[in-house]
Amino acid sequence: MYQYDHYDQAMVDARVAEFRGQVERRLSGELTEDQFKPLRLKNGLYLQLHAYMLRVAIPYGTLSSRQMRLLGDIADKYDRGYGHFTTRQNLQYNWIKLEQTPDILADLATVEMHAIQTSGNCIRNISSDQYAGAAADELVDPRPYAELLRQWSSFHPEFDYLPRKFKFAVIASETDRAAMRLHDIGIQIVANAAGEIGAKFHVGGGMGRTPMIAPVIREFVPALQMISYAEACLRVYNRYGRRDNKYKARIKILIHEIGADEYRRQVEEEFAHILTLGLEPPAAELARIQSFFADPSFEAELPEAIDRSDPDFAVWLDQNTVAHKHPGYTVVTISLKPIGGIPGDASADQMRLMADLARDYSFDELRVTHTQNIVLPHVKKADLYALWQMLEGAGLGSANLDLISDIIACPGLDYCSLANARSIPLAQKISARFADMDRQRDLGELKVKISGCINACGHHHAGHIGILGVDRKGTENYQLSFGGSEAADTSLAQITGPGFSEDGVVDALEKATEVYLAQRSDGERFLDTYRRIGMAPFKEAIYG
Amino acid sequence: MKILTGNDLKTGDVVWWDGQDWSRDVNDAVDVGAEADAILAREDAALRVNAGYAIDAQRTADGVRPAHIKDRIRALGPTVRLDFSLKPADTDISGWVL
In this structure, is residue A114 part of a structural domain? Predict the structure, then answer.
């Protein structure tokens, strides 16, 4: 994985020192909260419902075991012994003290981590495929391109005050595991007819209060012009994006209003201009970055056979592992969704254990998924049983990847000052209702996503079943929707009708699964059945 | 009644104005009547509270109850981590926020 050079480290260290001074000035009263707020947000520090919250960037979701171990240590030393992995592949600490924040950032800097640009109207942490570098179906590892974008976008002076926050995702396979088309810019690394590598740009997607699927703005940008094209995309947005209304300030609104063709025309004009300026990083820089993402030393001629005699292990094996590009290895997803648990939460001990397991079984590497789980990308098949036993012993052995209990849930009103309703208790009730493993597996792939407000951090628009919490006259109410997808078949979920109470929405969801079971054809997922038969049978069951 | 809440500047803890100082317990909150703005301006200037605001609440037999669920959750703590709540020993306390 990428390692900081002198400049990277110097920039992060300088930012820590700068923020230490800003905190001291705030605590002394030299800065008012109004003056301090934009400064702390630039360092990922929010004031949430109960306390300060610190959001730590995990670029493209990749972590070393050393970094994961420190995240656990910070949870113990400065927080309350746990952290929350988010849908942006980041980590949030919920109980941070302002006076300790500079020390936390200094600790993070010792393992090449920071919280820069995890908030504010700037280019945020760049997300990617959690199976990058391991997936059997990828064209190339997308992370060098994501890293190049990270370096370009970090402290980019022109894009430090955009109309609104800006999110990139980069993938390199036809199987979209990063909700790529639901980002401000979604890049798919592709090859053209000549076999040259380049970037397919989707621009203007997003969730939030106005969900949109990004249209393709350019089919192929040569890899060594990707930064210039991204610069052009941002420059047009920065010039014309609305700053008078934050609800209409995202790039998706601009493209919707002027049309994809006109946006494309302006980007191409700007792109042609930028190419004359020679702003593109040299090929040697991309090559330098790519060298950090070379395959680890995979062993040859490893056994493929796995002893499946332990039935619980066999279920986990079938559910939580996927094909690896190298024989003898597999990709393991560690579920952070135990029945009745808090989606995405991990204790300090669990983080340290996962760090140890990555060191011992996965070439020192972990990934955070946008679905709030953790991946060990390179595990020998021969090691799987021993690994699973240790996960089981630590409450990390749930065999529910992509099943109904593998729920995305934002922090909701339990933690978030923007939320209108709680998300986590609902996720807990749903997972408890469907705790039976046979029942979950019978239902098959069924992605439930819950947001506690219209900002859609819980990706409810992209849920096979999406749930949005709203405030109805001071009472929590939940809108149910069906038919969303964040995968290659991206679609936006449609609202079923009037909302429900917390218990009511669980009942309604269960009725929807009964409709699916009664109506499904062979091999159909819930989503497939919904797309085939439409909303009516589901509405009849839920409201009839 | 009108009560004041905010966060401790250094720690971020949720605090409630008890008439003399800022308490971690909502049940210590007092009715500030029409004095909310004056108290908040004074306390903010003295760096004794951050992001303070006034809310409606009721004094009930069980104590002070903020009018809105968001403030009740602020008062109690996250309902999914009752070990960090105002009443960690009360397993049914999350119902109080409803």
Answer: no
User: What contacts B34, CB < 8 A, 6 or more positions away?
Assistant: B2
Element containing residue A240 per DSSP (H, E): helix A226-240
Picking from A393, A428, A452, the residue at the C-terminal end of a domain is A393
| A273 and A173 inside one domain | yes
| Residues A30 and A90 placed together within one structural domain of the fold | yes
Residue ranges making up the domain that contains A444: 408-543
Put simply, the answer to whether B80 touches A425 (Cβ < 8 Å) is: yes
| B10, B50, B74: residue with CB nearest A50 | B74
Longest Cα–Cα distance of chain A, Å, equals: 67
Q: In this structure, how many other beta carbons lie within 10 angstroms of the beta carbon of residue A295? A: 12
Last residue of a domain, one of A349, A368, A393: A393
At A75, list the tokens.
Answer: 């949870």
Query: What is the helix (H) or strand (E) element at residue A197, kind and residue range?
Result: strand A197-203
Q: Does A98 touch chain B (CB under 8 A)?
A: yes
Quick one: closest CA in B to A99, which residue? B10
pLDDT digits (tens, 9 = 90+) for A190-220: 999 999 999 999 999 999 999 999 999 999 9
Shortest alpha-carbon distance between residue B32 and chain A (Å): 22
Residue A506 belongs to some domain of the structure = yes
Residues of chain A short of pLDDT 50, as ranges, are none
User: Is position A180 within any domain?
Assistant: yes
pTM above 0.90, yes or no: yes
How high is the pLDDT of residue A341? 97
CA–CA separation, A182 and A370 (whole Å): 12
| Strand A448-451 relative to strand A408-409, pairing | parallel
What is chain B's alpha carbon radius of gyration, rounded to the nearest angstrom? 13
ipTM of the prediction greater than 0.90, yes or no: yes
- Cα(A13)–Cα(A28) distance, rounded to whole angstroms? 23
Please indicate, yes or no, whether residues A55 and A91 belong to a single structural domain of this protein.
yes
What is the rounded distance in angstroms from the CA atom of residue A385 to the CA atom of residue A316? 10
Q: What is the pLDDT of residues A121-172, one digit of tens each?
A: 999 999 999 999 999 999 999 999 999 999 999 999 999 999 999 999 999 9
Same domain, A382 and A473: no
Look at residue A375 and tell me if it is in a domain. yes
pLDDT tens readout for residues B21-68: 999 999 999 999 999 999 999 999 999 999 999 999 999 998 999 999
Q: Which residues of A touch B9 (CB under 8 A)?
A: 26-27, 98
Angstrom CA distances, A345 to A28, A411, A463, stand at 34, 10, 20
